[in-house]
Structure to design on (182 residues):
């Protein structure tokens, strides 16, 4: 068997094709890693619950000029970071938001590989793009906030951890129901 066939087999078996073809693996952003334990003690000086939200606000060590708000979501029982989101201040102009999104996408595509346009249309979201690496992805776009303007956002997420988050939340919800009389 030729060395090239062995190399191709190893690439397919171990999933190295993402790294060879598409750029870097999606690990995390803004100093946080997807799957990292969101230990409140180690993050307590930098985090706070966002009012009315299941997201936790944090201050990154190295902020990016586009963004002024950073949050992460976690699995409710195992406390693993499942999503990391950054949001910009409000733009008055959709065109300026789109322009900055194009600049952000250039940087992300240079690092992670090509993006794809969202397959579904989201109401109030423009330049909706994804970069996929297995079950991890980066999602970016411009979203309207009624009466306030437009925000540029970027989301780093792990589909597997999001599945775990939903299952853990369902378990917590089921445990909170009084089953007497059902």
């Amino acid at each position: 068997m030729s060395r090239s066939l062995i190399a191709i087999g190893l690439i397919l078996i171990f999933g190295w094709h993402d790294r060879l073809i598409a750029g870097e693996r999606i690990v995390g952003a803004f100093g946080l890693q997807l799957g990292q334990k969101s230990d409140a003690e180690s993050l307590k000086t930098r985090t706070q619950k966002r009012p009315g939200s299941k997201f936790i606000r944090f201050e990154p060590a190295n902020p990016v000029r586009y963004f002024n708000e950073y949050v992460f979501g976690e699995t409710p029982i195992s406390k693993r970071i499942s999503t990391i989101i950054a949001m910009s201040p409000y733009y008055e102009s959709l065109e300026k938001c789109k322009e900055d999104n194009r600049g952000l996408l250039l940087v992300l595509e240079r690092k992670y590989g090509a993006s794809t346009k969202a397959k579904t249309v989201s109401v109030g979201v423009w330049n909706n793009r994804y970069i996929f690496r297995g079950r991890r992805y980066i999602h970016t776009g411009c979203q309207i906030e009624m009466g306030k303007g437009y925000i540029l956002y970027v989301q780093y997420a792990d589909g597997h951890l999001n599945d775990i988050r939903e299952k853990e939340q369902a378990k917590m919800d089921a445990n909170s129901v009084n089953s007497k009389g059902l």
Summary: The first helix runs from residue 3 to 14. The two ends are 64 Å apart (CA to CA). The longest strand covers residues 136-145.
